[in-house]
Design a protein that fits this description.
By secondary structure, this protein is α/β, with parallel strands linked by helices. It has helices at 49-53, 58-89, 110-114, 117-138, 151-159, 163-177, 183-198; strands spanning 4-12, 15-23, 28-37, 93-101, 142-147. The longest helix has 32 residues, at 58-89. 36% of the residues are buried.
């Protein structure tokens, strides 16, 4: 087994699908899969902070989002730190984190975001991804951002495999690693392998 590992993350509102992977899609090693909670249940609206902020004045909205941001980053950092420490105790070297992103278009100011329901969804996606980036960087991991809509093309370039072959290998991997092996785990694993190569 290779002793070099990368983590892969696919964020959702309040939680993240996470994978620890080694090897490559041609010789894949899935070490662990888990769910990381990134919203503090004690804070009302923490799973969808921009939706919750929409009902508030701008000052209160800013305060709520700042509070959620601090708590989400702390939760992510604790989870990533503990996971990386556990892998290192098993003799593995965790060198990077692959995080799936959306289009990456810059967002307007908070007031403009809160006036637009599509922008609220976009902002919440960026919110939880940002918590993962900060957590990974604070844990000493090199962060590789991977646009989800481009992940297969990027992976074919990195691994020099045809896209159909790559998709087949990733799909068939579920038979050996067992459930869960959904879109979350497949894409998080692919992001981890990209990070593994690009972090060396």
């Amino acid at each position: 087994m290779s002793d070099t590992v990368a983590l892969g993350f696919r964020a959702h509102s309040g939680w993240t699908a996470a994978v620890a992977a080694s090897g490559s899609p041609s010789k894949p090693i899935i070490l662990e899969r888990c769910r990381i909670e990134t919203a503090d249940a004690r804070i009302v609206g923490s799973t969808q902070p921009y939706h919750a902020a929409r009902e508030l004045c701008v000052e209160e909205a800013e305060a709520l989002i700042r509070q959620c941001q601090e708590s989400s980053t702390l939760l992510a950092m604790r989870a990533v730190s503990a996971w990386a420490a556990q892998l290192r105790q098993n003799g593995l070297t965790v060198i990077g984190a692959g995080i799936l992103f959306a289009s990456g278009r810059p967002l307007p100011n908070l007031a403009a975001i809160l006036r637009s329901h599509p922008l609220i969804h976009t902002a919440e996606g960026e919110f939880f991804r940002a918590a993962l980036v900060t957590a990974s960087e604070r844990c000493g991991l090199r962060v590789t951002k991977v646009k989800e809509r481009e992940i297969w093309e990027r992976a074919t370039s990195v691994f020099r495999l045809p896209i159909a072959d790559l998709q087949r290998r990733i799909g068939e991997l579920g038979k050996s690693v067992g459930p869960p092996w959904r879109r979350d785990e497949k894409l998080a694993s692919l992001a981890a392998w990209i990070a593994l190569i690009e972090s060396k």
